[in-house]
């Protein structure tokens, strides 16, 4: 803005965030939802969206080239299947997934960030992912919201 709150006719702002978000959401919504199960997803890097009872609840990524784990989409989704199978109040049949792959590993990180910021999926802030908030930290016995809703099955 220039003096007097008049728009600056010489200023141009690239709105890449909106362009990336809109294109990504459009692409993701065209991809068919699959019931979450073992061996779902390609052995590639990408992002995925999990739906519990048709509600988008989690957005995650798998980047085989830029992370220590080298996980693919298939490996990451298998981890979620295993985690869900050990929980009460939920089954894998209630969870569906959409995923998208990219030609560049960089886009995996950008896409995950954009989707989480836009959708604010409940499980992204609940302790569902690979790290449970508070677990193992000195002086805390915190139980995550996800663990409260879906406690581990009794042995």
Short description:
With 155 residues, the protein is α+β, with helices and mostly antiparallel strands. It is 31% helix and 15% strand. Strand 2 (46-52) and strand 3 form a beta hairpin.
Characterization of this structure:
The chain has about 160 residues and is α+β, with helices and mostly antiparallel strands. Helix content is about 30%, strand content about 15%. The protein has 4 helices and 4 strands, in the order H-E-E-E-H-E-H-H. It has helices spanning about 15-30, 75-85, 105-120, 145-150, and strands at about 35, 45-50, 55-60, 95-100. It has a 4-stranded antiparallel β-sheet with strand order 1-4-2-3. Helix 1 packs across helix 3 (about 105-120). The N and C termini lie far apart (about 65 Å).
Distance between the termini: 64 Å
Q: Which word captures the global form? A: globular
| Major β-sheet strand ordering | 1-4-2-3
Parts with pLDDT < 50 across at least 5 consecutive residues: none
Proportion of residues in helical segments:
25-40%
Number of helices: 4
Structural class: alpha+beta
- Evaluate the radius of gyration: 19 Å
Q: Classify the beta-strand content into a percent band.
A: 15-25%
Run of helices and strands: HEEEHEHH
- Mean pLDDT, to the nearest integer, reads 87
